[in-house]
Amino acid sequence: MLNNLLARYSPQSGSFDEMLDAAKVPRAHWRTILDSLAGETPEIMAKRLEMVQRQVRENGVTYNVYNDAKGIQRPWDLNFLPFILPEHEWAEIEAGVIQRATLLNKILTDVYGAQNILKEGLLPSTLIHGHGGFLRPCHGKKHLDNVALHFYAIDLARAPSGRWWVVADRTQAPSGAGYALENRSVMARTYPDLLRDLKVRHLSDFFSTMLDSLTQWGRQCAAQSGAPLRASEPPLIVLLTPGPFNETYFEQSYLARHLGVPLVEGNDLTVRNGIVWFKSLSGLQRVHVIMRRVDDDFCDPLELKADSALGVAGLTLAARLGNVLIANSLGSSLLESGALLGFLPKLCERLLGQQLTIPSVATWWCGEPAALATVMEKFDQLVIKPSFPQLRQYPVFGQDLKAPEREQLIKSIRRSPHNYVAQELVKLSQAPVWQPGNHGSLSSCSVGLRVYACATPDGYVVMPGGLTRAATGTDTRIITMQRGGGSKDTWVLSGTHNDAPGSTLRRTVTRDELVRDDTHLSSRMAENLFWFGRHADRCDNTTRLLRTSLNFLSNVAPSERGSEWKAIKSICVWYDLIDNPDKPPAATQSQTQTAGKPASQMQSQVPGAALSENQLDALIETTLLKAVVMPDVPGVARQLQQLNQVANQLSERFSIDNWRVLNQMVPDSAEASLNQSDAMAILDSVTTELMTLTGFTLDGMTRDLGWNFLSLGRRLERLQFQSIALQRAMKMNANGNLNWLLELSDSIVTYRARYRAKPEWLPALDLLLLDESNPRSILFQIDGIRKSLKKITKAYGACGEEKFELLRTELLLLDEDADLYCGNEKLIDLLARVWTASANISEQISLQFFSYTGKQLNRKPAKWSI
């Protein structure tokens, strides 16, 4: 069986093979997993792959590739075969990473401090002062415990000899650690027994160590600024993100959720008197530590990049004063220049008194005459890169250039040699992957390893594993996720399960410091929760309306339709699902649309004009079917897209279970060619998933102030929908069929259980208006809104709940009116005022809590008159 598995496995010649030795025999650390896979059929392997892909999809793991055909939410590519490293080999890598992180930290603190290495000539000053990443406003800044590089990543590649080489250092805002943790989470479900039997080292303790270290420095930062924290009071740590359009936004929100820190954007923070504050609804809260994912020069529009909309004005000043710890320190992108690699061996001997353990790939900075001569001699075997990020140039392979391009580049290098650096091309090692259609055997791909280290007060700690990146495209010389690369889980084997302890700090919370509410709720987060609630209920309302409309259209013959069909159509018109079929077009519009067209086409342009009943039904049905699957028209697909967009702003607030449901609801773009049966199946599925999502909201979310904003949004949306539906229904004939209205309001089962008779107006309106136990009734929504508003008022001040008290009183007076029937003008007027009150309170909530400026904007909802 093992022979079958390896039958089509053919690693590239001249590359190191991670799985097989020179004799094509599996290496010792690979034998266990290969023996396990050898007993599995291709069908089982395909199921494993499908399970991994499904988990990635359901967990919402994405890597946003700009201009990618798969869209901005591109699924993360995880191969279900791991990358395995034996214990002794990992020990060498770990020691080398710790040494390199320590060295780079010393270089960073010196360059922004005494600059001794420049004075001694160990590093050309051109590489520092000519680098766009050298931030002069940060020079002279002091660092707690002399640590400026709090989080570090290193890209490694294995040469054909088997030796590891450093390809690049990631020192600004290293990405990928969260993806590595998610990869392990998925693989733990795929190979739980193998992970245990092979004694693969855990990853989670690394993140605990990172958080504990930042917590300790946050305390020091607070004490240094004259506002020390109590022994059990934690410092406020936030993760600063560029926003949901960043390619690694999933990872940022994932880490924020895992670490339990607020995910913030630049607008969520403000600097006052040199101190960074978090703008929460309960007031300004002091920020002690910022884990940033925003590039250096975008962090502060005041001192660094004036047109940045991602940073916080005054952040550089706050960091200089020592009032906030920024990890990594501003200006750390300086160390990512490939031009520095050639100088690291001597710097390591000078600063650490040691030989550099893991060498960098051979690198020549063309600013040195001898290096320039070597580059010209080996030009076709090298990769040419810019020395400085401000040059905005892509790496170029010398061997790929045609004669004119080659000569042009050589001229550019000779003209400005200090702007270029050249690196030797390392032939990447090969690792196994399993892909469908390979006849049940393995194939090979090029891989590289990214390893992570975090600083602690006692030195650097390395994540026991990392992110293995795999080349999936045609060009395997460079691995990058932006070019569609894939990933593998990295397994570091150990002889014991006893990993290093994950926590180095003692944390004790006293009874006086217990927290029972959301103390870090920002205006942006509250607004997103509010609109998530609205969009979730709007999806449900739209789905039920489409299902009711299509059912009525297909099951009731035109001759048997009463005024109820007119009521249903009017609700669809209100929500823009169909055009008004009873309204004749304006003359100018008709002339514009029909000019120069034959009569047959002119008829189809005007839905209510000169169309038979059957033609009109067909037109409405086609429009409703489009509303089910096409996101470019009002309907379910568009609402689900909007719901998902808002949910992406709340990634760190939702559990994995929540996300599984959300990601299952994301519709695939499709043409409206499906039939009614297919459409009803889609609507039934969406309704079920929305009910599951509602269950998570009602049963799984803590009833804090954030939940109250979400609940308020849901109640307001449902109140508006029920008000419109009841108004339109009350314009029906007195003997109209009410089954559709009860179905639309999800109350038909309750009605039949209570009355066991054909629906009548009095009991139906009582159920949909006044029944406090019916979660679809008007009174139920008003009570829910009042309850949420009272909690928000208690925390933040009055927000206009008095109007709903009056409306509730008016509704209860209806309970004494035995004359509840269709056409009741008093009730129709009350429903209109209920709708207007809900629109008003929505606007007031937005102005009072979601406006960063606090200015009272003069704006109105799109529809005020109903």
Please mark out the parts with pLDDT under 50 across 5 or more consecutive residues, or reply none: 500-506, 584-608, 853-866
Overall pLDDT: 84
Q: Count the DSSP helices.
A: 29
Number of strands: 19
Terminal Cα separation, in Å? 72 Å
- Helicity range: 40-55%
Strand % is 5-15%
Main sheet overview: 8 strands, mixed
Q: Whole-number radius of gyration? A: 32 Å
Determine the structural class based on helices, strands and strand pairing.
Answer: alpha+beta
Describe what this molecule looks like in 3D.
The structure is a single chain. The chain starts with a helix and ends in a 17-residue tail after the last helix. It has 866 residues and is an alpha+beta fold. The longest helix has 33 residues, at 523-555. The strands form four sheets. Strands 1, 2, 3, 15, 16, 17, 18 and 19 form an eight-stranded mixed sheet that branches. The protein has a four-stranded parallel sheet with strand order 5-4-9-10.
Brief overview:
The chain contains 29 helices and 19 strands. It is of the alpha+beta class.
Q: Secondary-structure map with pairings?
A:
Elements lengths: L1 H4 L25 H8 L3 H17 L19 E8 L1 H25 L4 H4 L5 H5 L21 E8 L5 E7 L6 H14 L1 H6 L6 H21 L12 E4 L8 H11 L3 E2 L4 E4 L2 E6 L2 E4 L2 E4 L22 H6 L4 E3 L16 H8 L11 E3 L3 H9 L4 E5 L9 E2 L5 H13 L4 E5 L4 E5 L9 E14 L2 E4 L4 E4 L15 E7 L30 H33 L7 H12 L12 H8 L4 H7 L7 H17 L6 H13 L7 H10 L10 H25 L4 H25 L9 H6 L3 H8 L5 H10 L7 H19 L5 H13 L10 H25 L17
Parallel strand pairs: 1-19, 4-5, 4-9, 9-10
Antiparallel strand pairs: 2-3, 2-16, 6-7, 7-8, 11-14, 12-13, 12-14, 15-16, 16-17, 16-18, 18-19
